[in-house]
Amino acid sequence: MNKRKIPGRCVERLIIYRRALLQDRHLHVPSIFSHELAFACRLTAAQVRRDLMLIGYSGSPTSGYEVKRLLSSIGALLDPPDMREVAIVGMGHLGRSIAAYLVNRSPKIRLTVAFDVNPEKIGSTFSGVPCHSVERLAEVVSSKGITIGILTVPPEHAQAAAEHLVQAGVTGILNFAPVCLHIPEKVHVENIDMTVALEKVAFFACRSQRRKGNIDDHSSTSNIDQTAP
Amino acid sequence: MNKRKIPGRCVERLIIYRRALLQDRHLHVPSIFSHELAFACRLTAAQVRRDLMLIGYSGSPTSGYEVKRLLSSIGALLDPPDMREVAIVGMGHLGRSIAAYLVNRSPKIRLTVAFDVNPEKIGSTFSGVPCHSVERLAEVVSSKGITIGILTVPPEHAQAAAEHLVQAGVTGILNFAPVCLHIPEKVHVENIDMTVALEKVAFFACRSQRRKGNIDDHSSTSNIDQTAP
DNA sequence: TCATGTGAAGACATTCACAGCA
DNA sequence: TGCTGTGAATGTCTTCACATGA
């Protein structure tokens, strides 16, 4: 119940459970067993049960977990009571496509405003999100009570942009720039570093060179590898 | 030395160490101490020393680690002997900007070819990468010996696209689609799930609401929070 | 019989703390 | 003195295994 003691990994999985449960195939079924949910998310049944235990949800040994009730339990834990507003800084190609991708993904999280240095972009809207000059960042972020920032600026500007966001009152940053940000540790930073991810895949992909035509492997549970860690 | 026993987290950090070392500020200095490298990467000095121990690199207590020699040690471990070719599937806005972002990032990893279903995109090139029809995926991927696939297709097509990639001989997938892929576990999958990351930031960002004007915090070492998880 | 909830064990990752050395 | 390298301790996360209950 008290949010602070839920481990980060568990939060990620809860988000994934919710997404799986919201798919038609699960949403229109009264209940689901731990091993079914585990299979959908590529985890073990024990992991699922442990996570649900952590959020204080109980199922029944006969029918498993009630989907609707489980969804509201997860929502009660994950969703903030109030709407969270998000700003995105850097409206290059990456920023624009990420904005388009993330807009309207969650009922409690709204991408409200964008910032860029390029005068041609200032004043226009992208995916319905108005773009301002970064010079107005502090003013707009504070006045709208924005608490989350997405960084899609070039690496050399990421540190400065992050500092501006923090100074304006942001308490969480989703950083796409391939740099390590130096900001107060009370601000939660989530790094999405595609260059690292690609190199990591390249490193781990060099085992058994596969001959073609063996998609027959249906080995069941394996571990999640979620971005993150 | 033998790659298989290096933990995934450590690999991520090694990639980050290398990136930090390649910055001008470090590249033009003969040597670096563990705490300096740690600071640049927002880690602890002990963590850095432990990681470098794992790859069998030794520094000197007086001058620390020789930057150039350390770089080649990391490269010897991370870099494949041969060039790795990468295919990207899905050339929507996200796919195109990710392609632009990842092209020419690493000397040993080359984004070679793209695929899409849209006839208007087939035949053109994006960031210098030629785009083919997905119908030719198996043929092109096998013939070019491509071993890594990037998935930027809509979620409902991700599973099928992943299976095609695996069947064509891919052994590593960087998946941007917000779904859990069901493929043989010998294929390394790295998930970059922006929707999960954003919700996670929103969850953890709701602590102490900050008043403005306190960027003065210079508290030192904290943990990495790399995408992944 | 089969699935849940959970203590205990195990695996994994990080940090501590100190010997050894220049 | 101040660093590295590393055994040991600690902390975190995952899996095992079984009591319990329908």
Would you mind describing this structure in some detail?
2 copies of one chain form a homodimer. The first copy, chain A, has 229 residues and is α/β, with parallel strands linked by helices. Chain A is 39% helix and 16% strand. In chain A, the strands form 2 sheets. Chain A has a 7-stranded mixed beta sheet. Chain A has a two-stranded antiparallel sheet with strand order 1-2. In chain A, a hairpin with a 2-residue loop joins strand 5 (125-126) and strand 6 (129-133). Chain A is elongated and about 60 Å long. The two termini of chain A are 24 Å apart. The model of chain A is unreliable at 208-229 (pLDDT under 50). At the A-B interface, helix 1, helix 6, helix 8, strand 8 and strand 9 of A face helix 1, helix 6, helix 8, strand 8 and strand 9 of B. Chain A binds a DNA duplex (22 and 22 nucleotides) through residues 7, 9-10, 33-35, 44-47, 49-50, 52-53, 58-65, 223.
Give the proportion of residues in helices of chain A. Answer: 25-40%
Sheet/helix structural class of chain A: alpha/beta
How far apart lie the N and C ends of chain A?
Answer: 24 Å
Q: Could you name the ranges of chain A where pLDDT drops below 50 across 5 or more consecutive residues? A: 208-229
